[in-house]
Each structure stands twice: as structure tokens, then as C-alpha cells.
Design a protein that fits this description.
Length: 71
Amino acid sequence: MYLKRLKDLREDNDLKQQDVANVLNIKQQQYSLYETGKRDLPFELAIILAKFYNTSLDYIAELTNNKEKYK
């Protein structure tokens, strides 16, 4: 699952859930539900996160361990 990747990416960038929620234009509580798996992350938000973290959707979805985004 992508849950661990969401948290790892956030923590690797020294961000709080509120910081990421601000990027997604949602409330911190809503983002917390995504990160804990209580709600599925909408695809459009996954795209925003991939761009924000400068990585690929495949990395977020744990389909690859390569953090670099595609060229």
C-alpha cells in the first residue's frame, strides 16, 4: 500500500501533515485519513503529491523503489 510511502515522503521532507494538507488544499484531518488508510487517496491528489515531491506515481504506489520521476 501507498500509506507508508505517503508518511515517509512527508517525513523525509521534514513536513507536518498540516503542511501537506495545505499543498492539497484540504484540512489536516482529511489528510490524516489518507495517510492512515481510513480513506483512499483520490488519484488527482496523488498526482499533486507526485509533482510536489518531484517523484513518480509509481513510487508513491510502491510499484518501484526509484524515487526519481520519469524523464
